[in-house]
Each structure stands twice: as structure tokens, then as C-alpha cells.
Amino acid sequence: MLIDSHCHIQHCFTDRSDFDRGVKLISSSMLYIIDISTNAREFLNMKNRQLPSNILLSFGLYPEEAPSFNQEKGLEFSTFIAERKVKAVGECGIDYYRNYGTHFQQETLFRKQIETSMDYDLPLIVHTRNAFEDTYRILSSYKFSRNVIIHCFGYSATEAGKFLAEGYYLSFAGNVTYPGAKGIRDAVLTVPTDRLLIETDSPYLPPVPLRGQRNNPLNVKYTYKFISELRKTAQEELENSIESNFKKVFGL
Ligand SMILES: [Zn+2]
User: Fold this and answer.
1) How far apart are CA 176 and CA 205, in angstroms?
2) Can you give the residue ranges of every domain in the chain?
3) Which candidate, 180, 137, 181, places its Cα nearest to that of 172?
């Protein structure tokens, strides 16, 4: 059975009944998914819902939150994490593609969440875009006892090697199937079987052949198939290794 290690399920469906149908189908046909909330409003919307037990939550403040982040919001964040409704902290990280606030503001917000993940002994889900150097510098300044997942890996084999040397897991999304993504495909070939995860990042990044559509976790099957062909691994074997990596990372 398939696992989607990163999606934003509240944005995958058009309305409440579509959402309820989608959740039911996902829960019955997939092994696990991790749903990511990227701000307090989204997390409040998810945390008190009656969700099936294989839909797991993570909460992080997206780099977009960096310019307005302050002590009060930091306290609110820690309070939510302390409720122990999440399996991970994130996604959080550094994004210089969109330049949210200053680099210093992004780093401050990222470090706050790294430290919260350590305080609560939770894995960390990292977003990094056009910012390898700073993401690597910040992460490698910590000694993690829990796992770090670089989500939607978007760099090349060189950067993959550096993250892997730190012991992190790399998670690949539907963009690995895009014609222009040679660097990402080169990278996925270098990842040891026991350090690989697969995700949709839905509703974003629909894999080929669904480009242009709203993505959802069920479409992770296209990315599994693509990666199993690329790595010349039987799909069943890939599913088994992803399952064991996922359970190890999230302590299941
Ligand atoms: Zn995401």
C-alpha cells in the first residue's frame, strides 16, 4: 500500500462533501498520509477534526510567516506542538525563490521551529527552495536526535549528497516526473534505499500525466511507478522500503 509523506489535504478538494469523500477514499486505499498545516489557521482547522487514524498531522510555520513572526506567535506555536497532536514539526525552512521577508527573519523562524522539534522530540520536515547554502548551514549547526526530512527535494545530486551525509531523509514529489527535472532525477538515483520517501505535496505539483490538474494524495501512485522504473526496482520492493523508512522516521 502507498504512503504520501507530505500533502496539504484541506486544499485538495473543492468543498466539504468532496473533502469527506476524499478523506474516506484515501484512508481506505492508502497506508498513511502526512497532512501539513502551514499556519495557525490551517492547523486549527485540522486538529479538532475526527480524522481516520492513518491520516497523520504535522504543523509548521511556512517561510511566508517570517515577516510577521513575533514572540507571541512563537508561544502560540509551541503551545500547539505541546498538545501532541502532531507527528512532526514542519514544513518549515528557507525559501529565497519567493523572498518572504529578510533572510534574517526566515532564519529566525526556521531556528525557532528546529528548536521546538528538538524540545518535543519530533521529526522535522524541511522546505528549502533556491536556498541550499543557508538551509544546509542552519541545519548542520544542530545535532539532531530525531529525523530530518528534506521535503520535495528540488536540487541536484551534489546537494543530495551533502544532506545524506548529515543523515537526513530525502522526499521526492511529482516534479521528479517533469521533463525539465533532470537534476532531481539524477539526485533520486543517488539516494540509498533506506533514506528515500515519496510524497505528492498536493494540491501542488501533479505528476505526469496529470499536469494542470489539482493534485491529491491518491496520485502518489504515479510517482511511485516513475521512481521504481527510474531506479530499476520492482514497485513492490519500493513500497516495502518506503513503508519501513516512513515508520522509522515517524516512530510508528
Ligand atoms: Zn508542502
Assistant:
1) 9
2) 3-250
3) 181
Residue pair 125/60 in contact by the 8 Å Cβ criterion = yes
| DSSP state letters, 187-209 | HHHHS-GGGEEE---BTS-PPTT
The string of pLDDT tens digits covering residues 167-178 is: 999 999 999 999
- 71 CA → ligand 1 middle, Å: 24
Exposed e or buried b for every residue in 238-249, given b needs 16+ CB within 10 A? bbebbbebbeeb
> 203 CA to middle of ligand 1, Å?
9
Ligand 1 centroid distance, CA of 133 (Å): 20
Q: What does the pLDDT read at residue 99?
A: 83
Residue-level pLDDT at 31 = 98
The CATH topology of domain 3-250 is: TIM Barrel (3.20.20)
Distance 2 CA to ligand 1 centre (A): 18
How many Cβ atoms from other residues are within 10 Å of residue 2's Cβ?
22
57 CA to middle of ligand 1, Å?
12
Provide the strand spans (E) within the chain: 3-7, 32-37, 55-59, 88-95, 124-129, 148-150, 169-172, 196-198
Q: How far is the CA of 60 from the centre of ligand 1 (A)?
A: 10
Output the CA torsion sign for 199, 204, 208, 214: positive
- What is the pTM assigned to this prediction? 0.97
> How remote is the CA of residue 6 from the centroid of ligand 1, in Å?
6
Say how many Å lie between the CA of residue 85 and the centre of ligand 1: 19
CA torsion, points 217, 221, 222, 227, in degrees to nearest 10? 120
How far is the centre of ligand 1, averaged over its atoms, from the C-alpha of 41 (Å)?
A: 16
Q: What spacing in Å lies between the alpha carbon of 201 and ligand 1's midpoint?
A: 5
